[in-house]
């Protein structure tokens, strides 16, 4: 079995480590590496690998969007999502995007090899813990809990922008932004920016 892999992660140290582990697996060849989703899409288009291993949190085109695009264009390419998070929402979102496997970044080397062989021969790979996350009841999405404008403002707040900056960017008054912020906090039952940021991370509104 010869498996050609394209690896994507925005952290060079992570790519180097995982690339070395992949290179030690008999029959596996890392043919290219990408540091963001846009580069990943171009590499897959040109190389048509057997397997893509992609981080979910990347700048620009994030892993979810890249996975969805690859799956739509090349459904035969097996995609393994890579993340430090294994919440039910993250796993389900990755699978819905087109991933047929899911690995935590701190997975043991033997699991990486097993995942690649499983997606190639069986079509999917999910560890018992990840499979349990897939079966867990789904949490409501941010879009179900908040209005579109509130989601937009929450995303910017979680990125560290002040009310004046958000107001300027969205063409609103600072007072309007503050009102939305208060309503968001009341709706979610939180009372500080740290809690809002954790919520945004959990819901995938910002990258980790």
TrEMBL record:
Gene3D superfamilies tied to this protein: 3.40.50.2300
Concerning PROSITE patterns, the annotation shows: HTH_LUXR_1, HTH_LUXR_2, RESPONSE_REGULATORY
Q: Name one Pfam family in it.
A: GerE
The name of this protein is Response regulator transcription factor
> Does the keyword DNA-binding belong to this entry?
yes
Q: Which SUPFAM superfamilies match?
A: C-terminal effector domain of the bipartite response regulators, CheY-like
Q: Which residues are recorded with the post-translational modification 4-aspartylphosphate? A: 55
Q: Is NAD found in the keyword set? A: no
Entries under CDD domains matching the protein: LuxR_C_like, REC_NarL-like
Q: Which residue ranges does the record assign to the HTH luxR-type domain? A: 139-204
Keywords of the record: DNA-binding, Phosphoprotein
What organism is the protein native to? Answer: Ramlibacter aquaticus
**Domain Response regulatory, first and last residues per copy:** 4-120
Mind telling me which SMART domains this protein's record contains? HTH_LUXR, REC
